[in-house]
Amino acid sequence: MDTNALIKQAEQQHLLSETQILQILEDRNCNASLFAAADRVRKKYVGDEVHLRALIEFTNICQNHCLYCGLRVENRSVTRYRMTPQQILQLTQKAAKQGYKTVVLQGGEDPYFTADVLVPLLRQIKAMDLAITLSIGERSYEDYRAFKEAGADRYLLRIETTERTLYEKYHPNMSFDNRLRCLRDLKRLGYETGTGILVGLPSQSLHSLARDILFFQKFGADMIGLGPFIPNPDTPLKNTPTPSLTSALKVMALTRLLLPDINIPATTAMEALQSNGRFKALQSGANVIMPNITEGEARKNYALYPGKAAAAQAPLGLRQELETALRAIGRRIGTGYGGHTHLFDKSHGHTNSL
Ligand code: 5AD
Q1: Which of 87, 94, 165, 211 could be bridged to 83 by S-S, CB 3.0 to 4.6 A?
Q2: What is the reported pLDDT for 346?
Q3: Is the pLDDT of residue 353 over 70?
Q4: Residue 86: what are its φ and ψ, rounded to 5°?
């Protein structure tokens, strides 16, 4: 089938096979029509609101060795920090005052933050009437349950790649099966569960990306966060090529076609690769922005990849500026909690109440 016809089919039925996804990923001439179709599907299912999530990067201490990440335990050139629960609480209060309805607490896998430390904090944040998203890596079922009972609503845990051999190559001492176990536990506990990948890891093929997208659909993700892999000079992958923004946008747009009603952020890595990358993403299927409200040195030291700190800010400085920029592309800041509303019933392949 002609690639444009495939895109049309996906826009209407939200179904594509692995080889069909591959054909779209390989075809350089279909990009504009793919992005336009994803933009229409976004508008139809999740509307013109852009939901804001206040991102707090509360610890850059991490016990893992992920080959691409600047927070890996072997990296001695980053100054490590850990906020106190009091500092985290102050930042969430600031977020609430600024009108945010969701805070995202993100950190490295820092053993200090046991359930005993986090549970009272989550309870206090919940009392501020905020939706809480956690992004703190792999934990036990019991921890996930304790966080949920304390008020956490959503959880982000990227699978990074669904190709087991690649996963194991880039995550020494970690297990792909445990990653899947975590995602299943989160789902079972009733979290809105987000996952996602890095696009453009060395040795990652387009075929592999096609399978990643089908995994998102099969898993029934509530949120998908993805971005280009950006080589970090303080990691073993420092001398590997940087992928194009377009490749990441294509994976994101295909994700919107196949999971029409989920939340998809325009990620900071997209902005780091190209200024205005985040706005391009908002016009190619994304409906969420996660402004980084981490302050001072911590913001600088949460150094996943180069250019992150600068990209996180621009052009999100002031709500007013963002509002104006969004209005220029026909969008507005969301007023609610912006959770996942299930409009598309994938088991029957049809749309509910639309
Ligand atoms: N480039 C882009 N994204 C990265 N992440 C970590 N390191 C990099 C990098 N070098 C992403 C991972 C992780 C998220 C918090 O940041 O996908 O899940």
Answers
A1: 87
A2: 64
A3: no
A4: -60, -40
Distance from residue 38's CA to the centre of ligand 1 (Å) = 24
Q: How confident is the model at residue 296 (pLDDT cuts 50, 70, 90)?
A: confident
Give me the pLDDT at residue 163, please.
98
pLDDT, tens digit (0-9, with 9 covering 90-100), for 158-193: 999 999 999 999 999 999 999 999 999 999 999 999
Between the CA of 304 and the centroid of ligand 1 the distance, in Å, is 6
CA atoms within 13 A on the CB side of 287: 28
Arithmetic mean of pLDDT, 46-64: 98
> Which band of pLDDT confidence, cut at 50, 70 and 90, is reported for residue 307?
very high
Separation of CA 237 and ligand 1 centre (Å): 12
Pocket of ligand 1 (CB under 6 A): 68-69, 158, 160, 198, 227, 229-230, 232, 269, 304-305
Specify the residue with its C-alpha closest to ligand 1, atom 3.
229
pLDDT band at 320 (very low <50, low <70, confident <90, very high): confident
Q: Which atom of ligand 1 is least distant from the CA of 228?
A: 2
Q: In ligand 1, which atom is closest to the CA atom of 304? A: 7
Instruction: Report the alpha-carbon distance of residue 284 to residue 249 in Å, rounded.
Output: 7
DSSP H helical ranges for 205-318: 206-219, 245-258, 268-273, 277-282, 296-301, 308-313
Ligand 1 centroid to residue 232 C-alpha, Å: 10
Domains of the chain in start order, with CATH, are 8-333 (3.20.20.70)
